Amino acid sequence: MLKRLAIVALLQIVLSSALSVIAFAQLAPSASEIDQNVNAALRNLYSRNEKARTLGAKAKGVLVFPDIKKAAFIVGAQYGYGALRKGSRTVGYYRTGAASYGFQAGVKKFGYALFFMTDSALTYLDNSGGWAIGTGPSIVVLDEGAARSLTTTNLRSDVYAFVFSQEGLMGGVGLEGSKITKIAPSG
User: Fold this and answer.
1) 93 in Cβ contact with 175 (< 8 Å)
2) Is the pTM of this model over 0.70?
3) How far apart are CA 131 and CA 179, in angstroms?
């Protein structure tokens, strides 16, 4: 009996995951919508955080996900769309997604920007066919305190991440385990 319940629960999770992927694919924003959201998110981040603006000026590229949505009740999922910028030019579009399991409940919306400081980190993103954060280049997630101590002479990581615009009720934001995949949105 317990084995049957476990199989039914697993099938429900797989089916709901498949339906969610189909729904997310149909709701994907256009390239121009992603660009508008990325522009607004970068303006907001740079106006509120001088260190992010400094990193942006030195970065080889900045991958911005302006609107990540996360929901969970025991099983959680998050997704969002973004763009990779080199200077002020968009050079690619990406989707991020993650699933989690554990003692969790809530809904949250947030954004994050990944500042690629080395050519090798950008090459890894381009060649990985789907980068899972936590593998590949080293990444440092910066909050307000860590960002204050960052100077242009102590930049040592391949990638720096800033989490911003957090709204909602859920404990913590984890980037580890997120998968980033290149996409080709409509016009």
Assistant:
1) no
2) yes
3) 6
List of E strands, 8-88: 61-86
Q: Read off the tokens for 26.
A: 């149909």
Mean pLDDT of the chain: 76
Whether 73 contacts 98, CB under 8 Å = no
Spatial contact of 72 and 106, defined as CB atoms under 8 Å apart: yes
Question: Which residues, 6+ apart, have CB-to-CB distance to 67 below 8 Å?
Answer: 37, 41, 80, 81, 109, 111
Q: pLDDT tens digits, residue range 125-153? A: 888 766 665 444 445 555 443 434 333 43
Tokens (6 digits) for 108? 């949250």
Q: Which burial class, exposed, middle or buried, applies to 45 when counting CB atoms under 10 A from its CB (0-12, 13-18, 19+)?
A: buried
Name the residue with tokens 């080709």: 184
> Looking at this protein, which amino acid is placed at residue 18?
A
